[in-house]
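Practice record 12: protein with pyridoxal-5'-phosphate.
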Amino acid sequence: MQQSQFPILRTKVYDRPLIYLDNAATTQKPQSVIDVLTSYYTSLNSNIHRGTHYLATAATERFEEVRRKVCSFINAADRTEVVFTRGTTESINLVASSFGERFIGEGDEVIVSAMEHHSDMVPWQMVCERKGAKIKYIPFSDEGVLDLDIYKTLFSEKTRIVAVNHVSNTLGTVNPVAEIIKIAHSHDVPVLIDGAQSVAHIPVDVQALDCDFYCFSGHKMYAPMGVGVMYGKRRWLDEMPPYQGGGEMIKDVTLEKTTYNELPFKFEAGTPSVGDVLGLGAAIDFMLTEGVENIGRHEMELHDYAVERMRNIEGMRFIGTAPQKAAVISFLIGNAHPYDVGTLLDKLGVAVRTGHHCTQPIMDRYGIPGTVRASFAVYNTRDDVDAFVNALNRIVPMLS
Ligand code: PLP
């Protein structure tokens, strides 16, 4: 992989080369994605689906071509099961709200893991509060492994849906989602997978997984911000009411009544972010050229190398040490506040994330205020790891 494909990596921070290890928050964009955005706004910009003129038709064709590309990328059975959203957060809110409206009632139950990002916890809390339903949480061990024995005991005839992430953005755990889905299906309960931290690192086949919903964001997989995907099985989408009302999602509107458009448009009210969707298409092309499996393998090599070197640092404590992990390293050093570690690293040119990473219940579970998190992407190198660990070694004396 040519680092030169990512122009931002040439940036200097405080006169030092940028070492970007905040990829779980958002990845940088290759030139091919940036070029698609420029060319869209230079020569193709038009509102889609409802124009007869040349630009509208051409933009619509390109937009729908990306839908087919996403469909094949995650191996959905049909392109009508691919709904464009603004990102994972909107995708999960869409499902929680619409599925909840149709299928969750008073006294019903929803199962959510205790290691979810707030985006896959708060929408369920909101719908449960609205409907008088209850949430049951799947606990996890000190290492960050979900307790499947307890999970199995959470089901009742009132369970309506299970929501769990494929990869934890804080602990890095790769959850056994195939098994989690199988168990839920044995109770006739559908499963939503939050794939925000997996699609860029693990090949995803929604039919092989047999998940009912799979949600992800473009910006964490080399695409622009402002676009995401909600995959849903047709059998659910057909029965779910629209999430938002407006243009595009209607078939017919009279002063008295509205009938809704067919899938997937029923869930795509208003003007979508067309340029960003085209950018998502370019990002998928980039990932397919690199090979998603190769990307994941490369990142894990860096992860393992980094962990091995970090172990020698006095006071190092890793948060999240599951046997199945993605390339996310959360850690604390002695009693140092994560924010101080992050700020000092920044001054040495190293970008990491600090805080609760939108997973406050995980922090409560460990009794910590937050962590420092380093996360890897395709363009990171062993030199980046060396620069990061050397920077850690430099700052440790300052912390005590
Ligand atoms: N779920 C997980 C596991 C995440 O890591 C994130 C973002 O960090 C989200 C959901 C929310 O993604 P977005 O902010 O792109 O909607």
